[in-house]
Amino acid sequence: MTELHLLLQGPKNRVPRDLPEILSTESNSTVLADLTEGAQDLVTRISSKRYDAAVCFAEVKEDLEPLIQIRAAIPDLPILMLLGAEDGLSYQKALQLGATAVVLTRRTPLKASLIILQALAAGSIAEAIKARSGSS
Fold first, then answer.
1. Which fold does the domain 4-135 belong to in CATH?
2. pLDDT tens figures, 13-27
3. DSSP 60-104
C-alpha cells in the first residue's frame, strides 16, 4: 500500500485522540492521519492539504454536517462514515449525504483503526481512492 493521507473528523471528545498514532502503527506508517475538531478546523485543513480520503464519526444527526461540508468542498473525496451501532442514525441518510461507504460499529481506538485500514485496502473506499489518484 502506498502512503495515504486521511482526514479524521468527528465530534469533539468522541474521536479517539490516539487514532492517528494507532493508524500509523497498524499500517507500518503507510497511513498518515490528521484529526480535526469543529467546523473551522475542518474547513482550514481541507482547503490547505490534499487528502486521499476522509473518515467521519457520527453519534447524532448533527454529526452528519461535516460530511456535507467535505462533500461540498471536495466532491470526489472518498468518505468513510463510522456510525455508532446504536446511534439511531440512518445508514441510508449518510449515503444520501455523500458518504462513499458507511460502517455501523461500536468503536474502540483499535477497532476503529482496523475498520479504517480494511476499508482502505478493499471495497468502495479503496476503489474510490484508486479512481481519484488515477484522475489527478
1. Rossmann fold (3.40.50)
2. 777 888 899 999 999
3. SGGGGHHHHHHHHH-TT--EEEEEETTS---HHHHHHTT-SEEEE
